[in-house]
Amino acid sequence: MKPHFPFMTNQMKNRSFYFGLICVAFLAFIAQQISQTPFAQQAHFSALIIAILLGMLFGNSVYKRYESHIEKGVLFAKGPVLRAGIVLYGFRLTLQDITDVGINAILTDALMLLSTFLLTCFIGIRYLKIDKQLVYLTASGCSICGAAAVMAAAPVTKAESHKVSVAIAVVVIFGTLSIFLYPLFYPWATTLMTPHQFGIYVGSSVHEVAQVYAIGGNISPVVADTAVITKMIRVMMLAPFLLGLSWLLTKEAQAGEQRKITIPWFALWFIAVAVFNSFNLLPQTLVKSLVELDTFLLVSAMAALGLTTHIGAIKQAGFKPLILGTLVYLWLIVGGLLVNYEAGLFLS
């Protein structure tokens, strides 16, 4: 039974938008503080992951009791706030980043993105019979930039919150495993490629930007710099990827269903911001502030996502998403190594 607040006037009830935003912002602030603790940093738990966990904790306990008083703000954080965060993500990138690593990284990124997405969809839909929306979300996260890509693809696929959470869980689990695994076989990989090439391999096959940072930092500055730039090029492919995904979903619509192509305008603005940032027209202090604002917006969106995610719905997904994640992860490691090696030979 939901509690009744006698003092809550109709005017205040209409303020659920503001109350919801305050609630989400508070969870985002707490998540960012926790992410700065030694334990979180050693475990490489980003504020994004902590925020969704906090959101799920409260979403499956006290949220239902107060949902009517904060729902509008929470839904706003899942929608426009998320899209604003994706747009501002462009301030982390410049076109100069591409020239720093050359055509090898661009070609490898494109091959890995396309092959990973197609393989994930083929295995997930045809053989594992997983829900298509969940497969597309998982494929997006594995192909581009982990949780951020899953969140960006969510409005395009119009997926429910629990499907988004399952996809994020899959990419986080295997991306975190990469932090410990990649440095272990680096000594062996150097018999096949240079540190620069290994950096391209890391950037083109690891899920999250933060995980790429962690892996490169554990190996060498050369690997770290190359891996991060390669990863950022992969992130820049997010916008054309979302346009392609929107077109694919439109083509898949039933013949009797009239569905227009949904253009993810926020993805185009993301490219525009990255291009604008390449000209260095803004002071670096302002760009740094915009990046910090972007981080807070994305963390807030993750908190809102967690609040609207129900544990029961995740349990219903079963083990199939984990099986899919395992198979795709094997491709990222082995297939990614082969793609990088062959690309290096082709362009050498």
The number of domains: 1
- SSE run: HHHHHHHHHHHHHHHHHH
Low-confidence stretches: 5-13
Provide the structure class: mainly alpha
- Euclidean distance between termini CA atoms: 68 Å
Number of helices: 18
Task: Report the sheet-strand fraction.
Answer: under 5%
Largest sheet: none
Number of E-state strands: 0
- Radius of gyration, Cα only, in angstroms? 20 Å
Percentage of residues assigned to helices: over 70%
Whole-number average pLDDT? 82
- The geometry reads as globular
GO cellular component, one term: plasma membrane
Keywords: Cell membrane, Membrane, Transmembrane, Transmembrane helix
Membrane topology: Multi-pass membrane protein
Organism: Aggregatibacter segnis ATCC 33393
Could you characterize the architecture of this molecule?
- By secondary structure, the chain is mostly helical.
- Helices cover 79% and strands 0% of the residues.
- The protein has helices at 10-13, 16-35, 38-42, 47-59, 63-88, 96-101, 103-127, 132-143, 147-157, 161-189, 195-205, 209-217, 221-236, 238-252, 265-278, 284-307, 311-317, 320-347.
- Helix 7 runs parallel beside helix 11 (195-205) and helix 10 (161-189) packs parallel to helix 12.
- The protein is globular and about 60 Å long.
- The model is unreliable at 5-13 (pLDDT under 50).
